Amino acid sequence: MRRSRRHAVRLALLLTALLWVLPWSERPAPSAQGVDVFLNVTGGGTKKLNIAIPEFTVVAGTDAAGLAKTLAQVTGADLAFTTLFTVVAAEGRIPANDPEALRKSWTEFAAAGAHAGLHGLLALRGNRADAEMRLYDLTSPEHRLIASKTFSVGTASARRLAHKIADEVVLQFTGEPGVADTKIAYATGPPGAKELWMSDYDGFGAAPITRNGSINITPVWDPSARSLAYTSYKNGYPDLFRLFPFERRPEQTLAAFSGINSSPSWSPNGQHLALTLSKDGNPEIYVLTIATGVLRRLTRHAGIDTEPTWSPTGREIAFISNRTGAAHLFVMDAEGANVRQRTFGGHQTQPRWSPKGDLIAYTARAGTFDIWVIGSDGSNARRLTAGPGDNQGAGWAPNGRHLMFQSNRLGTWQIFSMLVDGSAQAPVTRAPGDHTSPSWSPRLP
Amino acid sequence: MRTRGDYALFASLLILTIAVVGCAKRPATTQAAAPAPTGTAVTTPATPAQPPTSQPSRPGDRGPTAAPSRPSTPAPPAPPATAAPATPGAGTRPSPKEFVSVPELKDIFFDFDKYDIRPEDAKTLDVNASWLKANPNQLVLIEGHCDERGTNEYNLALGERRAKAAMNYLVSQGVQASRITIISYGEERPVCTDKNEGCWSKNRRSHFLVKPR
Question: Is residue B4 pLDDT above 80, yes or no?
Answer without folding.
Answer: no
